[in-house]
Each structure stands twice: as structure tokens, then as C-alpha cells.
Amino acid sequence: MLTTIKILAGLLAVYLLFCAGIFAVMCQPPVRFAKAIARVPGPLFLVLPFETLWSVARGGQVRPGDAAPDFDLERLDKSARVQLGSFRGREPVVLIFGSYT
User: Fold this and answer.
1) pLDDT cut 90: percent of the chain above it
2) Residues 37, 25: contact at Cβ < 8 Å?
3) pLDDT digits (tens, 9 = 90+) for 3-48
4) Sign (positive/negative) of CA torsion 74, 75, 76, 78?
5) How far is CA 88 from CA 44, 73, 94, in A?
6) Could you tell me the residue range of the domain that residue 46 belongs to?
């Protein structure tokens, strides 16, 4: 019985360390995260609390009703950069992040 408990404790420790490692990778810049996560075998995502870790690591601090943090992006035609703050108080802005695919 004691051996079984030691084995289970060891497996739990390895699982928690692996989750902590995945969380640390999620906190890295997107390019570094993509390179690291590409090496993780697909079936492993079935046993990891991936969505929970991702929500905590990348969730940010913006809540509904808060002003969006200022940032700038290059225009599609690459002619200039547009800063979000330049629209503040002038006109409504809709921000859509994600993919339509």
C-alpha cells in the first residue's frame, strides 16, 4: 500500500511540474510559445488543464467596461501605423481578435 501511495505521489508531482512548465511557456511571447507547444504530443492536451492554464496565463487584467489599453498596429496596406488612442473620444472603435476560419 505504501508503495502505491509513493508511486501516485510521484506521478502527481511529475504532472504538477509538467503543468507548471506548460504555464511558464504560455507566459512567453507568442513566437516562443508556438515553438515550444508544437513539440507537445496531441494526446497530452486531453489530460492537461490547457484552457484553464491559458486563461490565467494570457487573460490579462482588462474587465468589461474598462478602457482598452493603447496599442498601435500597421495598416493593411503597410502605409502607416494606427494608434488606438488616436480614436479616443472621437468615434467608436470595434476591436475583433481571432479568426473567422
Assistant:
1) 25
2) yes
3) 999 999 999 999 999 999 999 999 988 888 888 888 888 888 888 8
4) negative
5) 44, 16, 12
6) 2-58
Q: Is residue 20 part of a domain?
A: yes
For residue 83, give the 3-state DSSP assignment: strand
**What is the C-alpha separation between 40 and 21, in angstroms, rounded?**
12
Q: What is the pTM of this model?
A: 0.60
Q: Is residue 80 part of a domain?
A: no
Flag whether 8 is in a domain: yes
Rounded to 10°, the helix 30-37/2-26 angle is: 140
Domain count, the chain: 1
Distance separating alpha carbons of residues 14 and 41, to the nearest angstrom: 16
Residue 25 placed within a domain: yes
